[in-house]
């Protein structure tokens, strides 16, 4: 059986990288006594894959991983067993059963939503709803991509599905493309917003939380986003 596990990552554990999170879950699954399936061959390993890796320093309420198990009593018992092994900062939120024809989490990622708030002393006083609207009403939003050998420009506006300002919480809300082909970092959008308003940008001042990870249940031209966990069923 294929399971999709949704979990959160907060606090000091936001400084743990993706490979360490993967190793952490491998050990937690063994300690929890989960009947997880293993690959065949000379070096068997747990059948597990993660959706879009979270950058170091970011928190999240919407991380996903897929695993295969040989047997399962119920999704809730599975979640409870894993949570008993969790340390402070990581918590299993939901578990669903995937259909046999479901694509894995990594291949399914189309977009992600973020909340961007600011450290004390770093709040940009220029930021208002009208500033954000003017930024998004541009015909194109050009950024420069630099590599060791070349420099190129491209338009990121088609990959920003939502950009709004929350006046009550003084934060930005973003939904951006998170697919493997057009992965847009939220910090890049904020940096470009600052530069468009001729403001100095310091990435250290950002507090970024990924709220949800989505798959596209529409078409390439007509995008319909749905949380990764919504494609399965409760068990």
Descriptive overview:
The protein has five helices and eleven strands. A hairpin with an 8-residue loop joins strand 10 (206-216) and strand 11. Strands 1, 2, 3, 4, 5, 8, 9, 10 and 11 form a nine-stranded mixed β-sheet that branches. A two-stranded antiparallel ribbon has the order 6-7. It is of the alpha+beta class. The chain has helices at residues 18-32, 75-83, 105-108, 129-136, 186-196; strands at 2-9, 48-50, 59-68, 90-97, 109-118, 142-146, 151-155, 160-166, 171-177, 206-216, 225-227. It is elongated, with a radius of gyration of 20 Å.
Give a quick precis of the structure.
The chain has 235 residues and is an alpha+beta fold. It contains five helices and eleven strands. Strands 1, 2, 3, 4, 5, 8, 9, 10 and 11 form a nine-stranded mixed β-sheet that branches. A two-stranded antiparallel sheet has the order 6-7.
List descriptors.
235 residues, alpha+beta, nine-stranded mixed sheet, two-stranded antiparallel sheet, 5 helices, elongated
By DSSP, the count of extended strands is 11
Estimated structural class = alpha+beta
Helix content: 10-25%
Tell me the number of helical segments per DSSP (H or I, 4 or more residues long).
5
Please compute the radius of gyration using only Cα atoms.
20 Å
Low-confidence parts lasting 5 or more residues at pLDDT below 50?
Answer: none
How far apart the termini lie comes to: 11 Å
Relative strand content? 25-35%
Shape by Cα distribution: elongated
Q: Mean pLDDT, rounded to whole units?
A: 91
Biggest sheet statistics: 9 strands, mixed
Q: Report the order of strands and helices.
A: EHEEHEHEHEEEEHEE
